């Protein structure tokens, strides 16, 4: 967790590799962006499918109806403030996307427990997330950006809940937060294509 905190809050003031304006014409970089925009879109579709399953199976469909319960839950929300247009830093944005994918990768065990009949979809999603993370790491290395390699064993604890209902609502918010995270990551990648 300390490593994650250092990663998320360390102040990188500049890109260490080529300036982004030089990268915008780089065909390999543009190919990386296009491929991973598609990948991110696929992951978003899988998360949306899980959200529909939670709605159909557990009748957990509307966020505003569950906000009171949310206050009792300890649900991690991965920050992506370095990926917003005003504060955009490619290096820290990529690092934050990778850190967030790692957090949500562990949290999806909660969903697997809630939807045991759809374990295959959760596993596919986790595999896609791991691939997206390694694509970003590879691209960062290619660009000469600083990267952090995470240990392969999952060190982030899976959230625990005091009741079955809290577990269900927690699953709902994990997916809702993850969907918002992916939307921001997608916009950041798209922003890079337009530089």
Automatic annotation (TrEMBL):
Residues of the signal sequence?
Answer: 1-17
Q: What organism is the protein native to?
A: Loxia curvirostra (Red crossbill)
Q: Which family does it belong to?
A: Belongs to the IL-6 superfamily.
Domain of life, per lineage: Eukaryota
What PROSITE patterns does the entry give?
INTERLEUKIN_6
Q: Name one GO cellular component term.
A: extracellular region
A molecular function GO annotation: granulocyte colony-stimulating factor receptor binding
Keyword annotations: Disulfide bond, Glycoprotein, Growth factor, Secreted, Signal
- Coiled coil: which residue ranges? none
| Protein name, UniProt field | MGF factor
Primary place of residence?
A: secreted
Q: Where in the cell is the protein located?
A: Secreted
Q: Which gene encodes it?
A: Mgf
Q: Does the keyword Glycoprotein apply?
A: yes
Q: What are its GO biological-process terms? A: immune response; positive regulation of myeloid cell differentiation
A Pfam family it matches: GCSF
């Amino acid at each position: 967790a300390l490593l994650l905190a250092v990663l998320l809050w360390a102040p990188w003031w500049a890109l260490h590799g080529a300036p982004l304006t030089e990268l915008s014409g780089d065909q390999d970089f543009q190919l990386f962006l296009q491929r991973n925009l598609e990948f991110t879109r696929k992951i978003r579709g899988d998360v949306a499918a899980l959200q529909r399953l939670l709605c159909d199976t557990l009748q957990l469909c509307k966020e505003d109806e569950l906000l009171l319960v949310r206050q009792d839950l300890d649900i991690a929300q991965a920050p992506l403030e370095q990926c917003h247009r005003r504060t955009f830093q490619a290096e820290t944005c990529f690092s934050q996307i990778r850190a967030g994918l790692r957090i949500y990768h562990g949290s999806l065990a909660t969903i697997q427990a809630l939807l045991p009949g759809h374990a295959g979809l959760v596993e596919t999603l986790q595999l896609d997330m791991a691939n997206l993370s390694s694509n970003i790491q590879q691209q960062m290395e290619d660009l000469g950006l600083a990267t952090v390699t995470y240990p392969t064993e999952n060190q982030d604890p899976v959230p625990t809940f005091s009741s079955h209902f809290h577990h269900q609502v927690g699953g709902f918010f994990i997916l809702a937060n993850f969907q918002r995270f992916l939307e921001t990551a997608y916009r950041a990648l798209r922003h890079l294509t337009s530089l």
